[in-house]
Amino acid sequence: MRLIDTHSHLFLEEFSEDLPQVIERARSAGVTHIFMPNIDSTTIDSMLSVCNTYNDYCFPMIGLHPTSVNADYEKELEIVARELRSFNKYIAIGEVGMDLYWDKTFLKEQQIVLDKQINWALEYDLPVVIHCRDAFGYIYNVLEPYKNTSLKGVFHSFTGTDDEAARILEFSGFLIGINGVVTFKKSRLPEVLTKIPLEKIVLETDSPYLTPVPNRGKRNESAYVKDTLMKVSDIYRMSPEAVGRVTSENALKVFGMLK
After folding, report:
1. 4-44: per-residue pLDDT in tens?
2. What gap in Å lies between CA 208 and CA 14, rounded to an integer?
3. Residue 33, annotated ligand binder?
């Protein structure tokens, strides 16, 4: 079995007491790589510390999460810019995007910040990992001018409609990130996935959030990507080994790590 967790926040304090065990359980589940999206300037050090400790297993991204965008966004962006200039081990710009679920106060600023980070993704030839919550139309409008560029990336934690999936796939370099939400009882994702080629899918956990069935209620961790794999295998009517292989190749390709 080969699995890649393309989106996991194992550097957060939820894992401070048992990270070695969490990593070992991930390895035992067949996870070969864990990709770690940054949140803001407060998380860079802890993320890099974990990635340095588990070198060649955990891989960092750099970006400013939309829920951390406020009136001081320019200071945060300068830190992202500095990191991009000084450290060449980042595998993506992420996680970035827009989130209007809690608050729309900084809607315009979120658009500006997303556009700036998309430009960095193109400048540094890195994929972009997009967070979208109650903001699909806004994000699509920011992305649309880049449709005929080399922009590539992952639309993380996808929970949208058939139409939204189709609009994402208008961008040839984009993949769709599927996590534990697909296992939830009321999720419409299983139906939507029947219209999306497996070659456009990557798997993720979004640990410590969105724990899949049958572990709902527990802290999520990278090993549980296997529960999502089993559900996706059922939807595509393919063996777990085949789905693991295809989604892992998809991930390595978009993140520029396919050897």
Report:
1. 999 999 999 999 999 999 999 999 999 999 999 999 999 99
2. 7
3. no
**Nearest-angstrom CA–CA distance, 50 and 218:** 22
Distance of CA 111 to the CA centre of its chain: 19
Give Cβ neighbours of residue 20 (< 8 Å, ≥ 6 apart). none
Q: Which CATH code fits 3-254?
A: 3.20.20.140
The residue length of the chain stands at 259
Walk across the sheet containing 153-155 and list its strands: 93-99, 128-133, 153-155, 174-178, 201-203
Q: How confident is the model at residue 258 (pLDDT cuts 50, 70, 90)?
A: confident
65 among annotated binding-site residues: no
Q: Is 192 helix (H, G, I), strand (E, B) or coil?
A: helix
Q: Is 144 annotated as a binding residue?
A: no
How wide is the angle at C-alpha 23 spanned by C-alphas 133 and 129, nearest 5°?
Answer: 25
Q: Is the peptide bond between 240 and the residue preceding it cis, with omega within 30 degrees of 0?
A: no
Question: 131: annotated binding-site residue?
Answer: yes
pLDDT tens digits along 74-117: 999 999 999 999 988 999 999 999 999 989 999 999 999 999 99
- The CA distance from 171 to 148, in Å, is 8
Record the tokens describing residue 215, joined without a space. Answer: 């572990």
CB 207 within 8 Å of CB 8: yes
Domain boundaries, the chain: 3-254
Please, what's the b/e burial string for 111-134 (b: 16 or more CB within 10 A of its CB; e: otherwise)?
bbbbebbbebbeeeebbbbbbbbe
User: Among candidates 253, 112, 77, which has minimal Cα distance to 174?
Assistant: 253
